[in-house]
Amino acid sequence: MKRIFIYFSFIVHYTGNDLDKCKFYLLLIGVSVHMVNTLKKYTVLILLMIGLVFLGIGCTGTKNNEGPSSAEETPAGESQSILLKGSDTVLPLAQAEAEEFMNENTGKSITVTGGGSGVGISALIDGEVNIASASREMTEDEIKSAEAKGINPVKTTIASDGITVIVNPSNPVSNFTFDQLRGIYNGSISNWKEVGGTDAQISVISRDSSSGTYKDFQKDVLQGDEYRPDALTQPATGGIVTEVSQNTNAIGYIGFAYLDSSVKALSLDKGNGSVTPTAESIRNGSYPLSRSLYFYTNGEPSGLTKEFTDFVLSEKGQSIVSTVGYIPLKK
């Protein structure tokens, strides 16, 4: 009987569970009709039990394949990851702050990208980021757009900066009045000899329109004038430094932290005497293009956004501001 059942099991498998075919083959090997019918009854029962077992396994497998619920996947509490996007001026500072913060807080992630103040502010308005970094204040139109989408922009000042006008180190010009600088960038002055330099065409370099520095320079220096149409725009501040360092007739403007020995900073006179951009002149506000740098959030910072913002404003965070090359907030 045991051997016959083994044969039957094999034939069941071989015939794809077709019991009528199983009966035919068993009769061929000499099994009696009574025995075949008995085995057939038992086999139906066995196949039914096996089916139920696999159904149970299948149900369990489906649940496991669905993965853990959101409650199991993420511990209760705030997110351990935030996104920061915006100002190219703030970018090196935000990167340095995020790196140190994550070193001290294992498992917490701060993703930092640039693109310009306008890009970061737009991302905040669209709910795409936790923090927008900016080298200018939001405009009234931006604030209205944010409020229309249910976003409440809150500004936090994180450091001070000075828009620094640079030329090639070989250029003999060392200072400008605001009128001279305005003339160069609105197109009314095009030759270096008009401002005390050599007889050479001025190559004017500017940031692109998404930049907060672009907007601040237009407001404070051009006083609302349009930029000259032949100005060469750069999508990043580093590009301006590179261009000016390689072109003896170029002029550009950058955030103070980007200033290095490959270019020369100009002193500026807005009517109260010429002032060189230094940490001290920016801190005390005597440098005429001093400004603040900001984080914008939707409402008051909370959770990980608050932890990171508090870190940037802390003594350690402000020491990083100095290390990067910007000016820490006054105590």
From TrEMBL:
InterPro entries assigned: PBP_domain, Phos-bd, Phosphate_ABC_transporter
Keyword set includes S-adenosyl-L-methionine: no
Domain PBP span(s) in chain numbering: 74-315
Superkingdom of origin organism: Archaea
Alphabetical keyword list: Membrane, Signal, Transmembrane, Transmembrane helix, Transport
GO MF terms held by the record: phosphate ion binding
PANTHER family recorded: PERIPLASMIC PHOSPHATE BINDING COMPONENT OF PHOSPHATE ABC TRANSPORTER, PHOSPHATE-BINDING PROTEIN PSTS
Protein name: Phosphate ABC transporter substrate-binding protein PstS
Organism: Methanosarcina barkeri CM1
